[in-house]
TrEMBL record:
Protein's name according to its UniProt entry: SDR family oxidoreductase
Classification via SUPFAM superfamilies: NAD(P)-binding Rossmann-fold domains
Region (Disordered): 294-313
Family note: Belongs to the short-chain dehydrogenases/reductases (SDR) family.
Amino acid sequence: MPQDTLDVTALDRTTGDPGPRGVAVVTGGSGGLGRAIVRRLADDGYDVAVLARGRDGQAGAVADVAARGRRALGVPTDVARHAEVEAAADQVEERLGPIDLWVNDAMTGVFGTFLDVEPDDYERVTAVTYLGFVNGTRAALRRMVPRRHGTVIQVGSALAYRGIPLQAAYCGAKHAMVGFTESVRTELLHDHSPVQIGIVHMPALNTVQFSWLKNLMPHHAQPVPPIYQPEVGADAVSHMAAHPRREIWVGSPTVGTILGNRTIPGLLDHYLGRTGEDAQQTTQDPHHAIGVNLYEPVPGDHGAHGDFDDRAHDRSPQLWASEHRPLVLAGAAAAGVAATVGIVARVRRR
């Protein structure tokens, strides 16, 4: 959408004071994981700006934030267009104040084998899912670096390290995002900047994306089980916002995928070649696709969840352990000491 047609809407609290946690921007915040992140950040006390193309979902997200007592701003934005992202960032700072947290989440996809995907569709996925992160990061850092304050969070994926069939464009974009983020992080470190940039790598999530991606396959798309609710991913983003670090891996499947690809990539190639296409399709789901959001948003407010509530986990023990590393390490150390004491005691009794 052209820059001069940006239509900004806001719901302000009566007091209009800034949030105690500051101002957050979430790209792709109108639906799916982005919608869950918007709600969680508002619960955390952030005033939240939602950058997305779909006005219906954006209005719903703005209402979610306002219902939690925080200020909300919706800016219709195509993140693939850097001028729109810059204009949106200006709108946010004019209406809500300096941006403290920027979460890049917007994505799209084409579900099909590489040779079946049209070049224009492949480029569109790359423009949104990769260049959208580049554009968002640039807009955020241009404002944060001079102030020497702020955090950028990239929503990554286990597929940023392990490519799978039927998602070449998405996997390529996520791989590129990792390399881009690592490069930018080293530049910030070189300049001794306190601005933080980190990645939260997600597992398969129960989001609406599987009902509106462009599907070239015969059956309905599904996330590869095990599936988690988007709130699990939102919890991880919330934790990184409060405790910035390089990466967070969400869910044991993400850990297994990333570590497995480092140790047995060839075996994974053959395993995914045999099972990957079937694992991403289902004939059991009664719901139908709701449209294709590749070039235009799908009308309606579709919320955060997809069609797989009956199979999705609402918590991750692995994420809890990752978020409580000092406690886990202390427990492990205590267990080690106890085991050593026990061994010594048995030796003395002999």
